[in-house]
TrEMBL record:
Protein family (similarity comment): Belongs to the nitroreductase family.
Enzyme class: oxidoreductase
Organism: Leucobacter soli
Protein name in UniProt: Putative NAD(P)H nitroreductase
GO molecular function, one term: oxidoreductase activity
Domain Nitroreductase: 17-165
Alphabetically ordered keywords of this record: Flavoprotein, FMN, NAD, NADP, Oxidoreductase
Cofactor needs: FMN
Keyword Cell division: no
Length: 189
């Protein structure tokens, strides 16, 4: 009997996960709205108990990033200049919102895990499409200023922002990651 590794010579999902990197510095090019919509359509495959889809993404481009910068400054205890600088680091910022649904079967933590899965999948798919992505968080994520800026409903909250942009060719080459000591993360009962 063959193992899955022997049966499948190509493992594109595994290759994509292994290749994924965070890019703290990106160029001014960004995926189009249509490209983002296409990637979001794939989120129906995220593990989601009862298919609640307890998440949403808010797209920030152009001057909308300045509103984010003001919220980062106010909610993160920094100068306006620094907040604006942080918000303008990428031409596209995608706010990841947990939007819980009422459910007797699915607790809040599980719904948050679904939104986190969406953020990870989306970041992976953007990276695989050639875009530079980094998931940013910080003090301002749960601030009132961020809530107001993103026009969140009372039950919603932010998980963070995916900063997305182009990648310079010279930045595409990375030194290998430090190997994972699997024995520290995998056990058996």
């Amino acid at each position: 009997m063959s193992t899955p590794q022997e049966t499948h010579h190509s493992a594109p999902a595994l290759d994509a996960v292994r290749a994924r990197r965070s890019y703290s510095s990106v160029t001014e090019s960004a995926p189009s709205r249509e490209e983002i919509e296409g990637l979001l359509a794939a989120m129906s495959s995220v593990a989601d108990h009862s298919a609640l889809r307890p998440w949403r993404i808010i797209e920030l481009r152009g001057d909308a990033r300045k509103k984010l910068g003001k919220a980062l400054a106010k909610g993160g205890g920094m100068s306006l200049e620094k907040g604006l600088s942080k918000a303008m680091r990428a031409p596209l910022v995608l706010a990841v919102v947990v939007s819980p649904r009422k459910s007797k079967k699915v607790p809040l933590w599980e719904q948050e895990a679904v939104a986190s899965g969406v953020a990870h999948y989306l970041g992976l798919l953007l990276h695989e499409a050639g875009w530079g992505v980094i998931w940013r968080t910080g003090e301002a994520v749960r601030s009132q200023a961020a809530r107001k800026t993103h026009e969140l409903e009372k039950h919603e909250y932010l998980l963070g922002w995916l900063y997305v942009g182009g990648v310079e060719d010279r930045r595409r080459k990375h030194k290998p990651r430090k190997p994972l000591d699997v024995s520290r993360h995998l056990s058996a009962l």
